Amino acid sequence: MTKPLAGQIALVTGASRGLGFAAAKAMGDAGAHVIAVARTVGGLEELDDAIKATGGETVLVPADICDEPGMERMCAALYQRFGRVDIWLHTACHAPPLCPAEHIDAKDLDKTIAVNIRAFQRLIRVIDPLLRLSEAPRAIIAADTHLGEKFFGHYAMSKAAQSSLTQAWAAESGQTIKITEFQPAPMPTALRARFFPGEDRSGLARAQDEAISLLASL
């Protein structure tokens, strides 16, 4: 059976659950060597088992994307081992408690900015050189929208900033790197459950199906 991503090096930040997990699994099944980054060790181990069960290969990186020196060391190690990254999928994000704009907690705001904006930009800084070493580099950034929705102020602000960074990076890269945003349909993820506890999840899209759509955009 032909595997369309055979020989490709795919880096997934936020790989232990939700869309990141499903897309990493799908890329592994398609032949990519998956570099899976997340804080949740148990989720990474489950992903490793799932990919290896279909003959795929993984490297697990249990790390916090806010650890800038750690991300620098990871990218240096990827260069030494693989010499490049072909695909970067970024799904990691922080989902703060929803609240009115005037009641946003300073610690929640700081963490949201640290994960969704600062860490994302620092990842671009260290991953961009690895992508440029690929013959066909692609970066896919998981997008989300809640602009103008009540109680989503700090989350929506951070995701809008992330989108702005993505679009600027794409414009600056020209045709060197294919950089796109992927807006998944609402899925029954842990992140969504924090925002909408108790909702009827029966009508939500499966993460596996959204992962297939994501791969089709590569």
Describe the structure.
This protein has 7 helices and 6 strands, in the order E-H-E-H-E-H-E-H-E-H-E-H-H. By secondary structure, the protein is of the alpha/beta class. The chain has a 6-stranded parallel beta sheet, sandwiched between helices. Strand 1 (9-13), helix 1 and strand 2 (33-38) form a beta-alpha-beta unit. Helix 1 crosses helix 7 (207-216). The protein is globular and about 50 Å long.
Write a concise keyword list for the protein shown above.
globular, 6 strands, alpha/beta, 6-stranded parallel β-sheet
Write the layout of secondary structure elements.
Elements: E1 9-13, H1 18-29, E2 33-38, H2 41-52, E3 57-62, H3 68-82, E4 87-90, H4 106-131, E5 138-142, H5 153-173, E6 178-182, H6 190-195, H7 207-216
Parallel strand pairs: 1-2, 1-4, 2-3, 4-5, 5-6
Helix pairs in contact: 1-2, 1-7, 3-4, 4-5
Please report the number of helical segments. Answer: 7
Low-pLDDT runs of 5+ residues are none
Task: Note the beta-strand portion.
Answer: 5-15%
Largest sheet, strands/sense/barrel: 6 strands, parallel
Structural class: alpha/beta
- In spatial order, strands of the major sheet run 3-2-1-4-5-6
Helix content: 40-55%
How many E strands?
Answer: 6
- Report the principal-axis shape: globular
Mean pLDDT over the full residue set? 96
H-E string? EHEHEHEHEHEHH
